[in-house]
Amino acid sequence: MNAAAHAEDSPATRRFQFRFDPRYARASRGFGVAPDRAWVVVTSDELEARFGPWRVRTSLDNVKSVELTGPYRFFKTAGPARLGVTDLGLTFATNGERGVLITFRRRVGGIDPLGLLRHGELTVTVDDPDELAELLRERTRS
Question: Which of 1, 45, 51, 126 is the most buried if burial means most Cβ atoms within 10 Å?
Fold first, then answer.
């Protein structure tokens, strides 16, 4: 059973939907990104983000830091999952206003199916970025 299926089973599990701006929704639809295929799930020990065919999954002890970011330029974030050329950061964006930048201790797979490219950070534009950031900070304090 995957993390999304567990979302209703445990009070420790929180599911965050992405907030879709209509322009972003049009730009991403052709890449398989839609509200039912774009979410972030945080359990008591794991983070999983799905963005159409792309997924990132890691333990919460791999989360190094969390910060709120934005705004973003449409042409740099709309459409499919985006790879930062200079830092290999990964962006799952469905609006240009605000998101959560999650930095990892160990790089994670996400953009390619073989996991050859590894990402040191992930940005997600969920419905409630403040709530996601606070939850991750609470669950990753040492």
Answer: 51
Q: Which of 4, 28, 24, 27 is nearest to 14 (CA)?
A: 4
Which whole-number Å values give the CA distances from 38 to 14, 23, 107, in the listed order? 14, 16, 21
pLDDT tens, 24-60? 999 999 999 999 999 999 999 999 999 999 999 999 9
Contact partners, residue 75, CB within 8 Å, separation at least 6: none
Q: Would you say residue 115 has pLDDT above 50?
A: yes
Q: What is the dihedral of CA 48, 60, 120, 96, to 10 degrees?
A: 50
pTM for the complete prediction?
0.90
What Å distances lie between residue 54 and 34, 50, 131, CA to CA?
12, 6, 23
**How many helices (H) and strands (E) in the chain?**
4, 9
**Sign of torsion over alpha carbons 112, 113, 118, 124:** positive
